[in-house]
Write a structure and sequence with these properties.
Six copies of one chain form a homohexamer. By secondary structure, chain A is α/β, with parallel strands linked by helices. Helices cover about 30% and strands about 20% of the residues of chain A. In chain A, the strands form two sheets. Chain A has an eight-stranded parallel sheet, with helices on both faces. Chain A has a two-stranded antiparallel sheet with strand order 2-3. At the A-F interface, loops of A face α7 and α8 of F.
Chain lengths: ~290, ~290, ~290, ~290, ~290, ~290
């Protein structure tokens, strides 16, 4: 299946450039079959697209407007359910097309596993890739109930590709003792609970190509309830916003926003949060 | 009342026989990874177990009481998420053990695909097996988005095992034109919309071993809203109850109740319905 | 504002013809500002469009398939909130364009008042128009709290245009005494509670141009809870389906489906019902 | 419109007579402390009062209008929580006052136990009282977990007062075997599942004083989901409506509507149903 | 306890003074027809009144008790739906009456547009009026989709009355670039994101008459989810509480609390928040 | 995996020790009959047990793992509804057994009144008991609507047992003026709004036996919405976590976690919060 390049009338707010004119391409990855707790992230990207019209295109935080940007929204990838392999292939393929055309992909999940498809494509083009990972969970298991491809193993699979020291994890507050111990051996840089060291990291990375993966459950559940496994003790929106604005100073070659399960938060606050986060990310990277 | 010191046990209402004494064994199959619309049936069996205590053990319909029966509740099988093959293996294995011990399995889903694990085990013991299938959907696709193992293909996979004319479908009101046409060629007996012919079928089956699979979405959504893909135009509870009572006259060697997604019906009516349906099934087959 | 004729990637299921090839044109009318009880029908058409993908294109009831039809979905009209006049103008204008191009409009509400915009346009082309109206409510007030344009007055406003004896109301079970009395004087044909006489009406109408307006609250709340003012004692889905199939024998020049408030029925059953009703209507009129 | 300066009043729709002018007096009994399954009926009467304004005062079923009646709404009784005795005392006292003033009480629950307070008062004035009881449940236990005062024992407590043969139960479909057996011995007239015999009963009762107690869970959960213990297999709204209209032919000296738990049915359908049922009851008894 | 025979009264907690004795008058303004995102604020005041009984009359923050105050609750104004003009007239009229009687009005919305009716009345009496405005949104558009009267234009309409420099906006974090630019030209004092400068403002205002308008969406959605357009990045309850206590030092001649949409936050937290905010406001201004 | 043939067991995550091996014993107290606002805490313990499997056994905060602990989960006590006395007897009895066996009880509510049963048992063994009480509410009334046993009086009843100066209350922000005044006279140590002084208290208590009672509504509603009477202005999870870790330094002889009403927070965040709080408490006291 090739990427839809011919237009999607229902875009994310303000993302109505043609594919050719765009320097950033959004797409949805509606897959959540390996979710071990409450599913529903498959509806994340569609919900974000629909609710984005409750938002303004202008950000008073960055004094910038989506109407001045060139962003194309390719809509939802057609993904099957159940086995993860064919799903990851479709995502890798779509990402590769976007990269080949010199654009930056922003994928909206879906569960965190979808990230692996994107990283496979990007690491081929950028072997020196670094990953900045915001999450409540380590996601570093070798396998989950015997399954190597899972939302709970996805950063470990990225480590398989990139090797030691290339993954920077922040906000982590849940995982097995084995995962924390494994990280501590230097396989990843893991910052428990908060964002300490992130500003310094951004300074040090310079032009190195970076993939930014945002598991929205890094936010405190008070700010973001709409996710399968909410973990008390997370970061605030203002802390996250400051990280996003820092992306301007990085060479972001791809990014994602994952783990919004819109039906879990019937108030719509979580979907509205995701919309605003994506608006700010688009303004920062485009 | 003295404190329970021997273990914290949560069975389906009134199903507290020991395994050895039981002639019926309940187990849950919490898997919904191939669900193509709204997921959540993974929580079906656990919800039924919890809410069953709002029910009486006595049925005025059958003038019978679960307290006079010998039923064991084995709890939930431990199933992984994502790929269906290992899941079906665990279900087949559990079913085989129950059969080997001379008991009747009653599986609570989970999505409809879990049925395939049970049928694989039962068909080995009973090669002349017949399936009575109540559902809103045909479930007869050869594959779904390239995937042969799916809730949308499960009866087709059962047909692969049993061959033409062994599957009796009732209440069907949704499917592709190809599925309806395929059934019409004699591969299955498909009764559209209602239960016409079911009484006669029961008369004719005699002692032939029967697997009874109940996709609860055969019920009208007014009676049962808690399912991923509700289809208007279904049967009523009283119609279903009459079918269940007929099970007494069949040689039921296994059965299931699938596709309850409890969180979709926040009123609890659907879970209460499933509890009552299971109570009546247990009274009919034990 | 002119109608979008250039394509809407998020269509109602199977309605992906080009505007030029289509003989039926769907559009959404997201307005609910005069709703006097619980609002939310503004989200009706968008919800239907999104959830339609849980449905099959094939109807076993009519043995027909949307894939064989030529239907264009123009998406949502851009309507303001508050004052009804400008909203009705936009609807009238869109309807007129569709009529001018020789196509049949199917409008998805929104509240019932949106119907008036369509009837204004159609009555200009078809002065001998008849209206078949299924509803729980009379909608015949002269004004509502001083306001002549309201969901509670919309059929009275249609009567202003068409005159006595041109409106056939069925399933009506709520209204003021004055409204029932006014209808009884011969201003409209009002059938209380049920559909008695509808088959005979269809026989008698022959080629007369008919506008079919379906307020979904004519359904019993057990079947359709997702509406602002549910009224016990309504018709069943099967009764409604039989009416819809009768549309084949009428000269339907326009129609609507209104008063779905999707958020009121969190189970999704009402939205799924509306999807199926619209599928069957499309198959019947195209 | 000038500002209301004489007090902020919220009645049930159309029940704005003064106490002295009224022949029927409504009051709420917000108590649910003995509920053994899901609580919440304490909010029933307040919800009904608020949502009644979505209804018309006119009934096309009875061709009658609340505006022509004289009904006073006394609001909620002030009831404590926990121990039932003081609660029943308050209810008995309020009922006695209404009776002493020659008016008919209509109590809105709350759980079914509140009925006992009213029956205590009424049976003092009318020793030959008969009770017509519509319910899904027998409510005939001698005690529930050791407690003689409970929603599950309330009709048994009424039997303590009235003796054998004075209670007529309809629609019953859930209870222990012991309860059904006890009724069968002639203690009560118990009609399982449906309303068979009710018309004949009304004919035979003549002028005998009757208390009508309506546990709304007698309705099928498809029609009425908002109750603590929904029981599939109930009666329809139209069946219930026909019973209510029969009340005109009885000497109703008191009545209640109980077991609406409004928060359990977030769609509002159950509360709207209760409003309509109460409107029809008021029109029938006043 | 004897039965209430003198009228069924539902006030906001503790606000049971007679109109004549009161120095503060509460009324509800149930209108939300221009809401462009999710409607439902029409139910705000009624919800607040009902849920206020979960609160204590005593505030430990101000060491003051509503029982020591003289406040009258006039209930809901009767407002039509749709066109805003007649609605604003009713509100202006009610406000004028309260002012004429020397009392302070506290209006509970409804959407923000209702404020305009109150300001029209108050500005006539107090031409040197100042407005303190807490909100997430600028509300400064000249028109919204062609409509000059809208929740999105309401502060601009107030500016039409009061002129430059009389409106002080705090907590603003959403709007078009044009609105922020327009404010920056000196038309209003607009403090982005937070409350900086508010204490100093209060000091400087002295005896100038002040209207305080509180759009509750100024709160962070974590604290207040029950509103149509939640905007991440808002202020906390404790910050808001400190502002409210400052009202004691101002000459508040009128105030409102708007944009609670109670059904959007099913947990009831938002309605409980609004109740507490109103209690504290009443204690501060009376 | 072979089928579980030895009984279907549902514990709180990781609490699968035998009773004899355990040093901490969990039990549920499903009672909420005196709740004066919204009920539903009866489902608290069952919800916590079910959702605990979304959590890890390992705590990165304490670097400790439930798998290294010896904890037994006795499931739910069988409690009746309505009158509180027999319920408190069952709780007192269960607590006494656990104490007699030299173990620490951790009770999961249920409403706060259940605490009284535990304190009665513990104070018999430890007459010099101190209570540390975190709550939004004073709970110090002498009676509530005439009832001395109520969630609103429970700490007063504990004071009846322990006398002046033995109860330390923190985070209190709601109550009557009389309750605050009564505390101020030295009957309890009451810290309004926050946790000031708690660290010093822990230092000073040394080996004195302490009962720790945690009413989860001490948390801010943004963090914990799932409770009957949410009170804005509460403490954060991180503040609570720091208190829990301090328990290590105390001689905790019993504790409880009460007032989770899981159905009130449909997002599941509150139940997940309670699970994590209980995990941390178990790690701190065992």
């Amino acid at each position: 299946m090739s990427l839809n390049k011919t237009g999607n009338i229902q875009n994310f707010l303000g993302c109505d450039a043609s594919y050719d004119d765009a320097n950033v391409v959004i797409f949805g990855a509606p897959y959540d079959s390996t979710t071990s707790n409450r599913p529903g992230t498959r509806f994340g990207a569609a919900a974000v697209r629909g609710d984005s019209y409750g938002l303004e295109t202008y950000s008073p935080y960055q004094d910038a407007d989506l109407e001045d940007k060139h962003i194309y929204d390719a809509g939802e990838l057609e993904l099957s359910f159940g086995r993860p392999e064919p799903v990851l292939d479709v995502i890798e393929n779509a990402t590769s097309q976007i990269l080949a055309d010199g654009k930056i992909p922003l994928m909206i999940g879906g569960e965190h596993l979808v990230m692996l498809g994107a990283v496979r494509a990007i690491a081929k083009k950028h072997p020196n890739l670094r990953i900045i990972h915001l999450d409540a969970h380590t996601d570093l298991r070798q396998d989950y109930m015997g399954e190597p491809l899972s939302h709970a193993t996805v950063l470990r699979r990225c480590h398989d590709i990139l090797g030691d020291g290339c993954i920077y994890q922040f906000g982590i507050r849940s995982g097995t003792r084995e995962e924390f111990d494994w990280a501590k051996k230097g396989h990843t840089h893991l910052q428990k609970f908060n964002l300490a060291g992130l500003v310094e990291l951004v300074e040090s990375l310079g032009d190195v190509p970076v993939y930014f993966t945002l598991d929205l459950d890094v936010l405190d559940p008070s700010a973001f309830a709409g996710t399968g496994t909410p973990e008390a003790g997370g970061i605030s929106f203002m802390e996250l916003l400051n990280v996003i604005i820092l992306l301007k100073r990085l060479n972001v070659v791809g990014c994602d926003v994952v783990e919004l399960a819109p039906n879990i938060d019937a108030s719509g606050v979580s979907t509205a949060m995701a919309c605003k986060v994506i608006r700010e990310m688009l303004l920062a990277i485009s």
